[in-house]
Specification:
Blueprint (H helix, E strand, L loop, with lengths): L1 E5 L4 H15 L7 E5 L2 H12 L6 E3 L5 E3 L1 H11 L13 H16 L2 H10 L10 H12 L5 H16 L11 H7 L7 H19 L12 H16 L1 H10 L1 H11 L12 E5 L5 E5 L18 H27 L8 E2 L11 H4 L6 E6 L2 E6 L3 H17 L2 H11 L11 H4 L5 E4 L2 E4 L1
Parallel strand pairs: 1-2
Antiparallel strand pairs: 1-3, 3-4, 5-6, 7-11, 8-9, 10-11
Helix pairs in contact: 1-3, 1-10, 4-10, 4-13, 4-15, 5-9, 5-10, 6-7, 9-12, 9-13, 10-11, 10-12, 11-12
The structure holds glutathione.
């Protein structure tokens, strides 16, 4: 069996778990998987030893191969189990393929900021409403698994104080709170980040009114990517979860459908709806929209375009500024060729704080909702962009697929820059070994 090491309350674990459940449900995951709660003992004694990082999720394949990182886990399993693929074909469905990859990137590395903020803002002292107790309990369930309820809650509370300085965090940001500041989310910009999240949710609500999944009637990489922000942070955490259920009922239903558990009404993929024949027999039919398929002829639903537009309007300018800073840093004498780079997405990587905070070489100016601010460069995003560039190569090498991409990308601000991704990335190639990133 595969072993997934994860936490229920973790952003990237939700993405991988939903994916593995889908493959397993379709009979396309070989021996199946066991979901293992990654307790501190396992994090220190196993995960960190295998990959160089205690971050979750991590996957152990039946042959002992170890895979760290949600995108790599999906890529690894897709290569090992090509049935029921989650990434559309490069030459026959280039637009859907690119849309899926861009939505994954937006979900992983842009929505991370407002979803991360939701969890911790509503856990601050004296915040009303507050989901601090829920988070103490769910973190404690991992930190002190096996202890009684009060013991688990106390473990969560103690950890929040020791690691995050939760009681005076607005004044002295520490741990996750410092991470939000490193990512450019503070008292000046937090409303603009929330507005960005709201825009995505409103657009998704309109989309899921017509389609069960991002690309039509069958899940893809885009759906599992979106489960990152949407499951643990925006659906499970109670303050955000109340708002999601109240204002975005169709997105809520999609979370249940894509997570594949507690989804009877939401209709998990593969589930059937039944009618009764005249002679009283049950007749099953697929329960999903769009004939349970991605839309035909590589179509992108008109309701999906505005979601992809958030990537181009908001995230792409930030990636461009980050690229300039990273390229300048890698070309400077301050960085030895092949040297290590920061690897974390939620906060400045320990040991790299001087570079990634203040006015460090790995920070850059950016703007959100008209507010000017500064944030850290996340080199991991350049590893992800290279992965997209690689996935697009066969499409760009085929004249009809390239023409289809050109037409589609022409409809987005700076969209055509995606056709030149290899040039965009020149001078900032990142190599990933386990959890560690290095320049090339
Ligand atoms: N890029 C990684 C990010 C993994 C990550 O940041 N995981 C978080 C939980 S969702 C974590 O374990 N953070 C603790 C740490 O980085 O030490 C992925 O896609 O798996």
């Amino acid at each position: 069996m595969y072993r997934l090491y994860s936490w229920e309350h973790s952003y990237f674990s939700g993405k991988v778990r939903g994916y593995l459940r889908f493959k397993q449900r379709m009979g396309a995951l070989g021996p199946g998987f066991e979901d293992v709660l990654a307790t501190p003992e396992l994090l220190a004694g196993l995960l960190a030893r295998k990959s160089g990082s205690g971050a979750v999720p991590q996957l152990e394949a039946p042959d002992g191969t170890w895979v760290q990182d949600s995108s790599e886990i999906l890529d690894y399993c897709e290569a090992a189990h090509p049935e029921w693929p989650i990434l559309p074909d490069a030459t026959s469905r280039p637009r859907q393929r690119l849309a899926a990859l861009l939505v994954e990137l937006l979900a992983d590395e842009w929505l991370l900021v407002p979803a991360f903020w939701q969890r911790w803002f509503f856990s601050e002292n004296d915040r009303e409403p507050s989901h601090r107790a829920f988070n103490e309990q769910q973190w404690g369930a991992m930190l002190a698994a096996g202890q009684d309820g009060p013991g688990r809650r106390a473990a969560g509370a103690g950890f929040f104080e020791a690691a995050f300085g939760i009681s005076d965090t607005r004044v002295h940001p520490k741990g996750v709170y410092a991470g939000l500041v490193h990512l450019g989310c503070d008292a000046r910009t937090e409303r603009a980040w929330q507005a960005s999240q709201h825009r995505v949710l409103e657009r998704l609500e309109a989309h899921f009114a017509r389609h069960d999944f991002v690309l039509g009637g069958r899940p893809s990489l885009a759906d599992f990517g979106l489960l990152g922000p949407l499951y643990a942070h925006l659906y499970r955490d109670p303050v955000a979860g109340f708002a999601l259920r109240t204002f975005f009922p169709l997105v809520t239903e999609w979370v249940e459908r894509t997570n594949g558990e507690g989804a009877l009404n939401a209709r998990a993929f593969g589930q059937k709806l039944y009618s009764i024949s005249p002679d009283g027999a049950l007749i099953g039919r697929p329960a999903s929209s769009d004939g349970a398929e991605w839309l035909p002829e590589d179509a992108i639903a008109p309701t999906l375009e505005p979601v992809v537009a958030v990537f181009f309007d908001e995230m792409w300018p930030v990636l461009r500024a980050a690229r300039d800073a990273l390229r300048a840093y890698l070309a400077s004498p301050a960085h030895p060729r092949g040297g290590e780079l920061p690897g974390k997405s939620f906060f400045a990587t320990p040991g790299f704080e001087a570079l990634q905070t203040g006015g460090g070489a790995l920070t850059h100016a950016f703007e959100i909702g008209g507010v000017a601010s500064r944030r850290m460069v996340v080199p991991y995003q350049f590893w992800m962009l290279r992965r997209i560039e690689r996935a697009l190569r066969p499409a760009l090498a085929s004249a009809p697929a390239r023409a289809a991409l050109e037409r589609w990308l022409g409809g987005f601000r700076h969209g055509s820059e995606l056709l030149e991704l290899a040039d965009f990335l020149s001078g900032c190639s990142v190599r990933k070994v386990g959890a560690r990133l290095h320049s090339k």
